[in-house]
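Notes from hallway chat w/ T.B., transcribed later so I don't forget. T.B. wanted the structure written out for a chain they're using in a teaching module, and asked if we could keep both sequence and structure tokens in one place. Agreed to drop them here.
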Amino acid sequence: MEATKALHTIIVEMTTGMLVLSTLAIFALTWQVCFSGRTTGKYLDALDGVVLFGASIGTLALVFAIITGYRQWPVEAFMTGTIAKNKIFTGYMALGFWTAFLAVRLSAGKALWSRKGLSIFSMILGLGGFLNITFTASIGGTLAGKPSGFEQLVRVIVETRETFVLPMGVNVLLIITGIVIPFLVYFLSRTKSKM
């Protein structure tokens, strides 16, 4: 049990570090595209490499963090504990955002950063993933019995001690978004390749 907790902690730290690194690089790239007008160069190529590396390794590590997280608690904790349910929810939301980001980046290639609209959309996906991984990590501190001061800030935005209940309209919007994004990315990348 202690070995699983230690492994989970290591994987979570790696996940958080990689995804924060990727988020910062996404913001830097989007800033360059939107405000400086630069769309090519060694600096941008290096940032794109950081984004792709951080998002890929971070998303893969997130999957392992979820697996090790499940292994360290009894099933009853996930079924009945509101904090555990919230951690699972935000963890899967983070996984969804980062997977969608990677789908966009891999479909569009480096050309993503030369297209203002697509780079802003990618930044929004990265920000959504970052916020959800932040919420997940904050909730994890409470579950481990070591709440952080940051959790108090998170609780101003979202109450983590009660189960999130989304209105039906939000659930439908999330489902539609999950279906539409892959098609949108596919058609946007095909349109760009025909130009």
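Follow-up for T.B.: The two ends are 56 Å apart (CA to CA). Might be a good example for the class.
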